[in-house]
Amino acid sequence: MKTQGEIEAAVCEAMARFMQEFMGRGPKEIRAHLVGNLVLVRLLGILSPAETSLAAVRPPEKGRDMLKDTRTYLIEMSRARIDSFVYECTDVDCVSMHHDISTITGEEVFVFTLSGSPELREMKRR
User: Fold this and answer.
1) Which of 5, 18, 79, 109 falls between 20 and 30 A from 101, CA-CA?
2) 3-state DSSP helix/strand/coil % of the chain, to nearest 5
3) 89, exposed or middle or buried, with CB in 10 Å at 0-12, 13-18, 19+?
4) What is the pLDDT of residue 79?
């Protein structure tokens, strides 16, 4: 069994590795939070220079929509791989995944719904 912090750290490490290997660029900052049977992951600084330029295309909806659609497609293509590392980190099956990206802030958010809450080991108090 892992502590909540160990699970959150493992999810951050796995997500950063996935982004680096699959998307070719890792986040500048990443945080994961385990809340019951939800895992929330927030990645900051994830847009490449090319994506930042695409997001600036006028009208703004055109570049934004193209970027969001492409990222969503790539993430959905990788769903099995993502589900696999979420399971490895939590020992619980992932039943749904929600994803969005902000072209304004360069922030990407994932929410994973697990089939149950992971069993947690209590942290030792000093």
Assistant:
1) 5
2) 45, 25, 30
3) buried
4) 96
